Amino acid sequence: HIPHVRIRIANFLLWERNYAAEPIMPLDIFKAPSFFMLLLVVLLNYMAVGTLIWYQVLWLQKVWHWSPLQFAVGWTPFVICATGAACLAAWMIPRMAAQCILAIGTVTILISNVLMATVPIHQSYWPQIFPSVVLFSFCPDFVYTAGQIIASNSVRRNQQGIAASVIGTLNLYGNSLGLGFASTIEVQIARRSGSQIMGYRAALFFGVAISAVALILDVCFVRLVKDDREGWHEDDHMEEIELTEQAEASGVHLPNVNH
Fold it and tell me: For 93-106, how does the pLDDT look when each residue is reduced to its tens digit (9 = 90+)?
């Protein structure tokens, strides 16, 4: 099925670039400052998140033989800290550069994966699993919040909704993609070493590696574009007028958002 998917993606991009009057995904959005690198950073972060979630569950239930109830209790700090992380991210927005918030979120998932990748087989919950759960809870909110802000400031006003949708889509897509790579690494390493635990550790070290790459890209290439625009750009305003005229021609009345 992979060749068919590639053909469909290629056809979609060709149509969006050359034939679509109103592209669903205008390709010039990727030329916006920092936007493409931002997408890579967010994608890699969520790939690491998906890897950690899966292999932390496997470790606790397959290696430590926790019951579902024990796992639910062990993950209670995640619920509490993730709620606090959402509030903390909102508090940090006017006080810290968005790329720094993004970097902090990346560091939390990096350390969390390191803790899980190096946890001894015979150890209690508190030395490494507990801090891993706590740190991991901060990553999704920090990365998502900072990513939305940087994306909105990078693109044109009429493309902000599209940019926000792309950031949101990377959440689920990154989780699935990361787990696909990690599980392939796990199977290969477990087969060669004869140890399933070595396979788990290798998958988690993959999460460490992609988190490190995300951190480097964020520090070196992602910047919050200063948004000193007042009102709409002339091109954006003209596109709004064209859309309004098309809607009215179709019998749909749109309210005037400028008044």
Answer: 999 999 999 999 99
- Give me the long-range contacts of 91-95 (CB less than 8 A, separation at least 24): 93/145, 93/149
Neighbours of 127 (CB within 10 A): 12
pLDDT of 257 strictly over 50: no
| CA–CA distance, 17 with 70 (Å, rounded to integer) | 52
Of the pLDDT bands very low, low, confident and very high (cuts 50, 70, 90), residue 245 is: low
Token representation of residue 27:
């390709």
Burial of residue 215 (CB within 10 Å: 0-12, 13-18, 19+) is: buried
Contact 25, 162 (CB under 8 A): yes
Q: Ramachandran region of residue 34, left (φ > 0), alpha (ψ -120 to 50) or beta?
A: left
For 58, residues 6+ apart whose C-beta sits below 8 A from its C-beta are: 200
The helix (run of H) or strand (run of E) holding residue 14 is: helix 2-18
Q: What is the largest CA-CA distance in the chain?
A: 71
For 223, residues 6+ apart whose C-beta sits below 8 A from its C-beta are: 33, 34, 99, 150
Q: Are 68 and 99 in contact (CB under 8 A)?
A: no
As given in the structure block, the two tokens for residue 205 are: 């070290």
Give Cα 165 to chain centroid, integer Å: 12
Q: What's the confidence (pLDDT) of residue 238?
A: 56
DSSP 62-89: IIS---HHHHHHHTHHHHHHHHHHHHHH
